[in-house]
Amino acid sequence: MKRANRQTPVPLPVPTETRLARRVLVVSHNAAQRRIFAIQLRRAHYKVEEAASVEEALQICQRVEPDIVLSDWAMPGLTGLDLCRAFRAAERGSYGYFVLLTSTGDHADIAQGLEAGADDFLTKPVTQQGLLARLAAGERILRVEDDLRASNAQLRTALDRLRETQAAIDRDLREARKLQQGLVKERSGRFGAIQLSLLLRPAGHIGGDLVGFFPIGEDRVGIYALDVSGHGVTAALLTAQLSVHLSGSSDQNVALRAAQTGTDSVSPAALAHFFNNMMLEEMATDTYYTMIYADLNHVTGRLRMVQAGHPHPVLQRADGSVRPLGNGGMPIGVFEKPIFDEIDLVLGPGDRLLICSDGITEATNPSGRLLGDDGVEAILRTNAFLGGHVFLESMAWSVSEYCRGERQDDMSAVLIEYLPPAETVPLPGQ
């Protein structure tokens, strides 16, 4: 006969989380009632404080912060209602649950107690089961409040870290702004009768616009205006790379390298195609940009220009007439076989050409209306008596006023002026 196997009893699971021992303040002038409540609560693993009056209860609340207050309504002198009001008015580190003991369940009394700040009510006589059930309901609310406070503390910690990170990013962006502004080494230039003035104003710390110029030989100057899609770090990095290809250094500048071969420098259209191939073949990015590049002979006034998706340059002749130039062309870095617009004109004394980014032409007023080419023409006509940086600053102010200060895009411009010859003023007696 085989001996039966004796099975080892399976131990009950041990709770992984011990219930927090809540502190309960029992307030009643009836000593026997206080004692009964205290015994029942201690058996249920509550910490218990006792007070025979409201004054004594308030002293205990200053010394310790009870989680739950169980108070008689009717007491000699100050009542449980007075205690509830004082309890709610006191400063605490956490929420306290307040239960009023009443002799009747009168609706008017309940409304008055809720208005004073009571959370719950118990009608005498109170059974142990009813007492512990009400306190259990209060504990659930306190646990929710504890969780919320813990979550808020974590959120505050995370927010402080985010603020520190944002402050570090802002410092870096301010330094990056200085470096980006340094890409435009000269904000103005004079070549014979031609005067060049540049404006570069990012919408944020850094942007995606770039303007500049560089000499080509003895009688020509290259002028460029770029606007990279979007603005921010990606756009700023691309403008930094492009500035190398358009810098004054002859071994890096694409146009100057062609001029050094002994032939004529690369044409504006050829330069646009070079950049388009570079974007498609060498850069794995969805970023693109618009561009105007001009080759200006400052002796003859002839200007050959390519427009690659950039806003129309605006020509103002010496007689005050204003007209936009070009048909637009395609942006750089989008199409394998783009079509760029080529412009050829001759500037004369008193003429000027304004090249703007879309941060100016697409500036929007509060009603949603764009400034547009008409707005730029109006600015040129209104400021016909201004020139150089004074004109550019006046234009920038006009655009900001049009937007009511809510400018969303970078703003850049190049002003090319063919200065008229200085007038000879005869001296008295001549």
TrEMBL record:
Domain Response regulatory, residue spans: 23-139
Signal peptide: none
Molecular-function GO term, any one: phosphatase activity
Pfam families: Response_reg, SpoIIE
Annotated InterPro entries: Bact_Sigma-Reg, CheY-like_superfamily, PPM-type-like_dom_sf, PPM-type_phosphatase-like_dom, Sig_transdc_resp-reg_receiver
Coiled-coil annotated residue ranges, if any: 145-179
PTM-bearing positions, type 4-aspartylphosphate: D72
Transmembrane segments: none
Alphabetized PANTHER family for the sequence: STAGE II SPORULATION PROTEIN E, STAGE II SPORULATION PROTEIN E-RELATED
Protein name as it appears in the record: Response regulator
